[in-house]
Known about the structure:
The protein is of the alpha+beta class. Helix content is 46%, strand content 25%. It is built from 6 helices and 6 strands. Strands 3-4-5-6 form a 4-stranded antiparallel beta sheet, covered by helices on one side. The model has no long low-confidence stretch (mean pLDDT 88).
Amino acid sequence: MLIGQVTALAGELDKRTATANLIRPYDDGGQAIPEAVVNANLTKAYRLLMGMSDTPWGSLIVDSVLDRLEVSGIRTGNDMLDEALWGVWQANRMDSESKLAHRSALLDGRAHALVWATGDAPMVSLDDTTQMVVSYVEGSRHLRTAALRRWVDDDTTYATLYRPDGIFKFE
């Protein structure tokens, strides 16, 4: 059951990573020159200018929205709870870190926050769509069945499967 779930989630993560790898060059300016232009009969001067005129158009669009996104508070209707939650937000440096989640959501349509209980206060870590995937109860977009976080460190791939009945680590 566990291996099957890890395999299924890893397959979904691979699909999302492939899509992200197609989109992200447009954000960082590394997009390929269109095939029609490459195959066209162009002068050397024009080809030279094309290489010098790469513009990360995607990042201009994403950054224009990202610059306007700023979390300025948390409101639940309970002032004491609001203050406590804002303290957790600040302790986790989410003023700056949340920009990473916002950028991921703008580029890939998804961003993930993992909240972990440590000592006195929760710890929040952020992952983008190339590192984490979540599965839901069929027909629900809110009831989670599992999440898989996968990363590579020193040429070794690690994965952590989060389920209601436990946390399982794989190498």
